[in-house]
Request: fold
Amino acid sequence: MPDLTADKQPAFYPPNAQNAVRQAVVAADNVVATITGKPLEEYRHPSIGTVASYGVAKGAANIKGIKMTNLLAWLAHRAYHVYAMPTLNRKARIVIGWVTGAVSGRDATSLIKETDPRRNFVEASKS
Reply:
């Protein structure tokens, strides 16, 4: 999807869920506009930056031109995801999940004893 707000063209929005959700609203409005004979709206969403997490306390961010790395970027990434959730219930569940994970450690399922992981799927598909 072209980013019409970017100074340098051509520019494109990243293919992520945040943009897809925003674009879907404009697309739905444009379907209704087409049916009712009203003008179409271009998708424009000015980005405030990007954030990425790649491990506990590790990340990279560029928010409004301010570059961050490691713990600060990781915290910005976590804060953005809590902010983006639509209800207080979901926000609380996410934070509680993070705190629980930090206190209890990772939940890992061992597959060491499993010599043929596809076997169960193949057997299930035959029935």
About this structure: Residues 89 and 95 are 10 Å apart (CA to CA). Strands lie at 49-53, 59-63, 66-69. The chain has a mean pLDDT of 87.
